[in-house]
Structures are given as C-alpha cells and as structure tokens.
Amino acid sequence: MDNEIDQENSLLKNIASSDLSSAGENGEAVKKLLSELDGLSYKVKIALEDVSTLLDLDALESLYLGKKSKLTEIKRELGGLDFDARRIVGGKLNDLRQDLSGIFKIKRESLQKDELQKQLAEDICDITEITETDLYGHLHLVSQIRRELEDIFLGLGYEIAEGNEAESDWYNFTALNIDPDHPARTMQDSFYLDLGSDNSLLLRTHTSPVQIHLLERGKFPIYAVCPGRVYRRDTADPRHLPVFHQIEGLVVDKGITFADLRGTVEVFIQAIFGSKTRTRLRPGYFPFTEPSAEFDITCVICQGSGCRTCSGQGWVELGGCGLVHPKVLEATKVDTDIYSGFAFGFGIDRLAIMRHNIFDIRALIENDIRFLTQF
Ligand code: FA5
Fold first, then answer.
1. In what order do the strands lie in the sheet with 166-168?
2. pLDDT tens digits, one per residue of 90-122
3. Residue 210 half-sphere exposure, CB side, CA atoms within 13 Å?
4. Cα 157 from chain centroid?
5. Ligand 1, CB within 6 Å, residue ranges
C-alpha cells in the first residue's frame, strides 16, 4: 500500500513540474485533469496485475475505457476548456487511451494463450492407445456367448423364443408347479413390481416362464431356446449377480425321453467348451421337471483332476434340467398321452466365467475397458 502511495505522489510531482504556462486561464483545471489522467493510468496498471481471466479483463476494460468510464467523463469536460487547455489535456488523454488500449491488448493475448494451454491440457487424449476396435466397440462377452448359443441351437433346428422380463405369478411360479409355500416366492428371492392391487407382477426369476408361453401356444412339436435377463434378490459375490442371464431350452414332441435330454446337453456343452469337456447329470429337484437333474461340466481349470475353483470335485455345476412335469403339461392343456418333453436352463454369465477362467463374475458388470477388450 505504502508503495502505491509513493508512486502516486511521484506521478503528481511530475505533473506539477510539467509546462502548463500555455494553459492560460484554465491552468488549475488542466492541472487537475492531467493529475486525474495520470492517476487513472497508474490504477489500471495495478488492477491489471490481479486479472487472471478474460471475463475480468473485459470488465476492467469497460470500467476504464468504456462509455461510462472516467476517461470518457474527462473527455466530456474538455468542451468547457479553452483551446490551449483542450490541446494539452486532449493530447494527454489520447496518449493515455492509446497506451491503455495497447496494455489491454497485450494482457488479452497472454490470457487467451493461457486459457488455450489449460484447455489443451484438460482435453489431452493419448491417441496411441486407441485402436480401431476400441473406436467402434464390440459386443459384451455375455452377448457374444448368447449369440454363439443361439447359433448352436439354430443349427440343431431349434427356434429362438422371446420371453417377457416382467411376468405374472402364474407364469413365473403357479403354472410351473411352484406351490404358494415354495421359498422361491418369498420377497427375499423376487423383485415384485408395484403395479396393480395384488402385487402379482414380478421381474422373472428364471427363464422357465417361457416354457408356459410356448406350451400355451399349442403348436407342436416344440424345439425352442429362450435366452434372456433374469432378476433375483441375490447379493453379488464371485459367483452370483442380482441381474444375470439364463438360457432356457424346451423340447416337447412325441416319444421324448431322458436319453434325448442327455444327448442334447452333451452336444451343446461340447460345442461351447470343446470336445475334451465332459458332462454329467446328477439327481436334482425342480418342481417343474420330473425326474430332475443338475448338470455339471468338468472343471476347465483342472480338466477334472480337482482344484480350488471346483472345490476339489473336478466338476462345476452349470444348470438344471429334467423331463417336463406332467402337472406343467396339464396346466397348459397339453395331452400327456401324446406328448412328453424335456427342459433345461443354465446361467450364461456362469458359462462365460467358466469358459474364460474368470475368477469373479462381477468383472462382467464392472465395465472396466481393460477387461472387456480382452474378449
Ligand atoms: C433355475 O433357474 C431353473 N429354472 C433351471 C431349470 C430350467 C431347471 C428348466 C429345470 C428345467 P437355478 O436356480 O439352479 O435353476 O439356476 C440355473 C442356473 O442359473 C445356475 O446353475 C447358475 O448357472 C445360474 N444362476 C443362478 N443364480 C445365479 C446368480 N445369482 N448369478 C449368476 N448366475 C446364477
């Protein structure tokens, strides 16, 4: 502050010693105006030191050089002075305006350069890391496997059926012979939709409801698969997701036996995992199949010799299957004297992690580009 006052005083001394003899009667007024002009010049230079943005610079320029500035006010006062006084003050005023305009111009260029550098630093993008594939993206691993499965089953003569993600209690449970007391109906396992008075709509917990839609359609024989998203109140962990994908298979024809199911499972598992992978069916329980089985494949990590991933078993569970329960056929008015069938359902995400030795299923939904671009 003291430094500012010293500079202002020295400016005023310079003005006092300047030759004002030719200013005639207006000598005092001229002295005052010249002093004001010098004061302005000084103030602008000090104020400019604190300006760091173009916005602030615009505001300062308008304050000191604009229509309502002190400089314009002094210019108006020139009209009341005599010729010589006008010449002295006017000359000084023009010099000052030119001087200040130049200073503002230099400051503006410097700020523009700074802002450009800042912007370039923020927008920096290492184009050496971008490959052509990254630019266009590609299908997620789960979608790739889903398409692969669809191709395999199309090749076996199956149709690809569409299911609904929101289903009623009838399709998700009742018609599938899941009685009202079955634990799968509890609020812990299902996401119910707050629609209608009885809350009977829910996000399907498996792809099996599509079996009922296909059976109700009444067109036989049925050879169909339905891949899609399913929802459960499962906490995400290395083997579970609350939203995941299943593929349902349904075959209903004359004279279908367990041997047909066995052979079908073998064929598509070998198509996905290769001919070295073996499959086995273990007794299981599903209300909508009888007999029911879980199907396992030999562990892809240890090829069946036993490791941590398969808990030393050499086998890993992939899904469930069985012959369609007569009660399901009856509920959908299918003549059980003519038709029999089998069904299976397994997790596509589970299949993906097994085929690619992914230790944690959650990697599939984390969207880490380094993970996704491997497939
Ligand atoms: C079912 O969902 C039956 N609907 C399958 C079925 C269809 C049996 C037709 C008989 C006839 P389960 O709940 O076991 O069964 O699920 C089948 C597969 O889905 C599992 O083996 C597993 O691969 C996958 N799966 C189940 N829960 C999850 C989860 N939370 N996250 C990822 N995958 C899962």
1. 166-168, 201-203, 191-192
2. 888 999 999 999 999 999 999 999 989 988 888
3. 28
4. 38
5. 206, 208, 232, 234, 240-241, 244, 246, 248, 286, 289, 317-322, 343-347, 349-350
Please check whether residue 93 is in contact with residue 70, taking contact to mean a CB–CB distance below 8 angstroms. Answer: no
Per-residue pLDDT reduced to its tens digit, 213-272: 999 999 999 999 999 999 999 999 988 999 999 999 999 999 999 999 999 999 999 999
Q: Which two tokens stand for residue 115?
A: 């802002």
Give the separation between CA 56 and CA 361, rounded to whole angstroms: 53
pLDDT tens, position by position, 13-71: 444 444 555 555 677 888 888 888 888 888 998 999 999 999 999 999 999 998 888 88
Rounded to the nearest whole angstrom, what is the distance from the C-alpha of residue 69 to the centroid of ligand 1?
78
Domains of the chain: 2-122 (no CATH), 141-372 (3.30.930.10)
Whose structure tokens read 């103030």? Answer: 43
Ligand 1 centre distance from Cα of residue 359 (Å): 19
CA gap 129, 3 in Å, rounded: 54
Question: Which residue among 206, 210, 211, 328 is best mutated to probe the pocket of ligand 1, counting the most ligand atoms within 8 A of its Cβ?
Answer: 206
Task: Please state the three-class secondary structure of 201-224 as a single string.
Answer: EEECCCCCHHHHHHHHHCCCCEEE
